[in-house]
Amino acid sequence: MNKFTYASVSTTDAAIAEMDEHDSPKFIAGGTNLLDLMKVNVENPDHLIDITQIAFNQIEATADGGLRLGALVTNADTAWNEEVEKRYPLLSKAILAGASPQLRNMATNGGNLMQRTRCYYFYDTATPCNKREPGSGCSAIGGYNRILAILGTSEHCIATHPSDMCVALVALGATINITGINGDRTIPITEFHRLPGDRPDLDNTLQAGDIVTSIDLPVQGFEKNYAYLKVRDRASYAFALVSVAAALTLEGNQIKEARLVLGGVAHKPWRSAEAEAALTHQEASVSTFEKAAAIALEGAKGYGDNTFKIELAKRAIVRALKQAAGLEEQA
Amino acid sequence: MINPREYIEPGSSWPLGHAVPDQPATHTVKLNINGQDVHLKIEPWVSLLDALREYIGLTGTKKGCDHGQCGACTVLVDGKRINSCLTLAVMKQGCEITTIEGLAKGDELHPMQEAFVEHDAYQCGYCTPGQICSAIGLINEGIANTRDEISELMSGNICRCGAYPHILDAIEQVKGVAGHE
């Protein structure tokens, strides 16, 4: 780890002011991903600004009846929050599918959004990586790429976003509240993360000095018909090969509304509007789900070691939708 | 136990013989460890794990992977289990930190320690301090009730020797005795 200076702040104004005074500053909260990356010299900030004393530590109702998750509330406190468990069980389930209890006690909601890829080559400073060193090349394309992306990739990067929480947040239609040099703004979570394109060094659309203050969940929580299915190399505490967040509203056996989002397959949580359209106003049946799964994976591209993920994702979608519709018990 | 010195001046030695750094980058930090205030002058990049082991001399907490993957460094902060290797000591001022050394009352072991001994819940013992702190954190959370749930919520602690069945036996016993079932 490189040497750095440290300051703790208690207001966003102070945090933004600290940003201006250093060459390569970083905000730190839970630190579970940042410190890990600093230990392998992938992140090398000259100054850490500790934002944990800023009051973004509440879960509270929003004016329109939704729920606001403070950016500094830990993943564990969010997953086990009574309102979240009752109204947004999909989110609880997704959070608890990720990391370990210790990490979830440290990691914050804002930090979960900011997680960086676990691509082996991104972590290995001895190899080229366009995300770590723009223009150096992608070692994963043509390299060992079993865990990497099959959708939305570019010739410059096939990294995946590692979060489980964010997959559920996309399915729930969350919005992200941000404060920064130019004031406050709110964006849909689908506009927070980005695809790699020719700038894989940029994970998201935040500008320098921006701070995520909270995440808003809309009223609709899909608490009756939901599933989060995570497929991984061991039963617990591993990143997803493929994960599926499925959420339905049903009227009898008819699907009124559907949300379908994949994790572990792209540079961002992968929501398939086309697959959702193929589910809407259809009968909740295996044949409907199989059609939707095929549509969701249209355009998927394997890179050799990860080609199995295309079929795996289709089967995971069918199973998750069966669970969400109550045709199969949730694991 | 913790070196009883209330404040260690720059230039003097820590219990393990490190020179106390005296640079502009150092921070004066007060940590509450096992009920005792400890004053340190440390650089901001010192992890809580390194502060415990290398600066304070509490070597019960183990360094395994140093990347939050194995759980050997698990300690309790305000009663919650965390990985001390992925935490900066400078960020834990004002918190109550409990390590494996702080669990027993004199010669009387903590019930979780007793249960680990009784059930032979270890082989080499390297992961054990982390397992025990994690298990106490699990009991504090009050979420896990079945053996499967305990197993899932202990997945952040790896045991290279594979003592998992006995570790689960020990935790189940303490949960039963504590009336959490």
Automatic annotation (TrEMBL), chain A:
<dbReference type="InterPro" id="IPR051312">
    <property type="entry name" value="Diverse_Substr_Oxidored"/>
</dbReference>
<dbReference type="GO" id="GO:0071949">
    <property type="term" value="F:FAD binding"/>
</dbReference>
<dbReference type="InterPro" id="IPR036318">
    <property type="entry name" value="FAD-bd_PCMH-like_sf"/>
</dbReference>
<dbReference type="InterPro" id="IPR036683">
    <property type="entry name" value="CO_DH_flav_C_dom_sf"/>
</dbReference>
<dbReference type="Pfam" id="PF03450">
    <property type="entry name" value="CO_deh_flav_C"/>
</dbReference>
<dbReference type="InterPro" id="IPR016169">
    <property type="entry name" value="FAD-bd_PCMH_sub2"/>
</dbReference>
<feature type="domain" description="FAD-binding PCMH-type">
    <location>
        <begin position="1"/>
        <end position="222"/>
    </location>
</feature>
<dbReference type="InterPro" id="IPR016167">
    <property type="entry name" value="FAD-bd_PCMH_sub1"/>
</dbReference>
<dbReference type="Pfam" id="PF00941">
    <property type="entry name" value="FAD_binding_5"/>
</dbReference>
<dbReference type="InterPro" id="IPR016166">
    <property type="entry name" value="FAD-bd_PCMH"/>
</dbReference>
<dbReference type="GO" id="GO:0016491">
    <property type="term" value="F:oxidoreductase activity"/>
</dbReference>
<protein>
    <submittedName>
        <fullName>Oxidoreductase</fullName>
    </submittedName>
</protein>
<keyword id="KW-0274">FAD</keyword>
<dbReference type="InterPro" id="IPR002346">
    <property type="entry name" value="Mopterin_DH_FAD-bd"/>
</dbReference>
<keyword id="KW-0285">Flavoprotein</keyword>
<dbReference type="InterPro" id="IPR005107">
    <property type="entry name" value="CO_DH_flav_C"/>
</dbReference>
UniProtKB/TrEMBL annotation, chain B:
<keyword id="KW-0411">Iron-sulfur</keyword>
<keyword id="KW-0001">2Fe-2S</keyword>
<feature type="domain" description="2Fe-2S ferredoxin-type">
    <location>
        <begin position="27"/>
        <end position="103"/>
    </location>
</feature>
<dbReference type="Pfam" id="PF00111">
    <property type="entry name" value="Fer2"/>
</dbReference>
<dbReference type="InterPro" id="IPR001041">
    <property type="entry name" value="2Fe-2S_ferredoxin-type"/>
</dbReference>
<dbReference type="InterPro" id="IPR052914">
    <property type="entry name" value="Aldehyde_Oxdr_Iron-Sulfur"/>
</dbReference>
<dbReference type="InterPro" id="IPR002888">
    <property type="entry name" value="2Fe-2S-bd"/>
</dbReference>
<keyword id="KW-0408">Iron</keyword>
<dbReference type="InterPro" id="IPR036884">
    <property type="entry name" value="2Fe-2S-bd_dom_sf"/>
</dbReference>
<dbReference type="Pfam" id="PF01799">
    <property type="entry name" value="Fer2_2"/>
</dbReference>
<dbReference type="InterPro" id="IPR006058">
    <property type="entry name" value="2Fe2S_fd_BS"/>
</dbReference>
<keyword id="KW-0479">Metal-binding</keyword>
<protein>
    <submittedName>
        <fullName>Ferredoxin</fullName>
    </submittedName>
</protein>
<keyword id="KW-0560">Oxidoreductase</keyword>
<dbReference type="InterPro" id="IPR036010">
    <property type="entry name" value="2Fe-2S_ferredoxin-like_sf"/>
</dbReference>
<dbReference type="GO" id="GO:0051537">
    <property type="term" value="F:2 iron, 2 sulfur cluster binding"/>
</dbReference>
<dbReference type="GO" id="GO:0016903">
    <property type="term" value="F:oxidoreductase activity, acting on the aldehyde or oxo group of donors"/>
</dbReference>
<dbReference type="InterPro" id="IPR012675">
    <property type="entry name" value="Beta-grasp_dom_sf"/>
</dbReference>
<dbReference type="GO" id="GO:0046872">
    <property type="term" value="F:metal ion binding"/>
</dbReference>
